[in-house]
Every structure is written in C-alpha cells, then in structure tokens.
Amino acid sequence: ANKDTRPIRVEPSHHSLTLILRTCNRLKLYERCAGLGDYLMADNSFSQHLRPQHIYELVVARLGMASSGEKDQALKVRRIFEWAKSRPDFVLPSGASASVAFEICWKERDWQTAMKIFEIVSGQPVAFGALQKYTLRTAVPLHGRAWTHLARLALGASAEAMHHCLYLIAAYAPHHLEALEKRPQVSEEPKTKTDTRTMDDSFPLLLVRLAERALATKEQMLATKEMVDRWQRLRDTAARYVARTDKSKLSHSLPKEENR
After folding, report:
1. Which candidate, 256, 249, 149, 157, places its Cα nearest to that of 207?
2. How many Å apart are CA 239 and CA 96, to the nearest integer?
3. N or C: which end of the chain has fewer CB within 10 A?
4. Threshold 0.85, pTM exceeds
C-alpha cells in the first residue's frame, strides 16, 4: 500500500501558542511574533485557535516594532482588531490590548486610527460634538492606561485632532477621575516605570495640561458652552487630585518629553 507522505499537521493548544508568542516578545523577536500572527490569521484552520491573550501578544509585538522605528504599526493593529471583529465567534480584544494599541497610536501620532480602534473596542461610533451620545459601558472595559495614552495623543496632536479627542476624553474622564479619587492612596514607590498604578496617576496631570490648552483657545477647541463647562470642571477635579498626590510619582510616570 502506498504510504501517505503528506506532512503531519499539528495544531498547537491555546496554552502552547501563548507561550510561543510570549517568548518571542520577551526575546524581543517582535517581527517573528508579528509574522506568526499574520500567518495564523490568514489560515482559517489556525485562526480559530486565536484568543484574546494571543491578540494581546501580537499587539505587544507591534508596540516593540513601533518603538524600534517601524512605521504604520497602528494601522496594522487596527487590522488585527478588525479581523477579530469579523470572526464569526468575535474574539474581543482585551482592555490591556486596547491600552497597548492606543500607546502605539500615541507613539505614531495617529489619532485617526486611535478613533477607529476606539469604535471597535467600545462598540459605539465616535460622536464628534455630541457628548450625550456616548455611554460609559464599552464592549471592552478600557483601563486607565488607555485614557492616559489618549490624553497624551491629544496633547501632541494637531488642532483638528485635539478638537476631536477632546469630546471623546470629556465623555469618559469624569468617571475615570471619580474612580481614582475613591481609590486608597498607596505609599510605596512604583516597582517599574510601566506600573499600572502610576500610569493611572499620570492621567489627571495630563488632563490638567489638556484642559488648560483647550480653555486657552476655547473658541477653536470647545465649540459649545457645555464643553467649556465640562473642561473647567475636569480641570478643577484633576487639579485637586494632582495636589494631593506625591509629585515624584506623577513625574516618574510621565515620559521625558511630557515631564516638564
């Protein structure tokens, strides 16, 4: 009888695939991780094995590539999210994946892609000029770090981009600030520069700077009285939080170009 000489097709378990992708990232083999992700998404028999933890590792790989100077990584992350949304079983990216995606958008100053990614992870369209159209409950719970990167993006963006970002941040910032104010103060120093707690702490300081810039040119940035009032309240609330927070922690959590 003729022997079947076709190669044996081995499908990795979810755990094995996570380990492979994570190991590539830890060894800074970002292109290999991203390339493997592209291959898996293109193969229908493999793509069914992809889960939120795998998408997170693929997005982390794109962040590594963006940090090393590779262009258009934000667009590629957007395609990963769009692919996930197009799946019959709809593999929702995690909040951590969204946070890393917004960090890539901030690094590349790509606010338009950030808005598209927000629409995917929130499950609602970006409603420019309409605060009341947003709901606080998003499809993917967005971490404090996500809003930190969106605020950074708005601060470094053009006037047009900043105007659009202001509506989005204004809709969600009060809820995030309220959660920060209710959180117990922690006295110990942050363990790393990317500590989640300090990334949250930097958000109010960024918010104060963003509010001051917006209110200084409110005719251009804040088209309605509702927006002016909202940003005045945000500035005052954020300033109170900053005043009672250890300034060394705030400085530690900001990138060098913003820590001034």
Report:
1. 149
2. 27
3. N
4. no
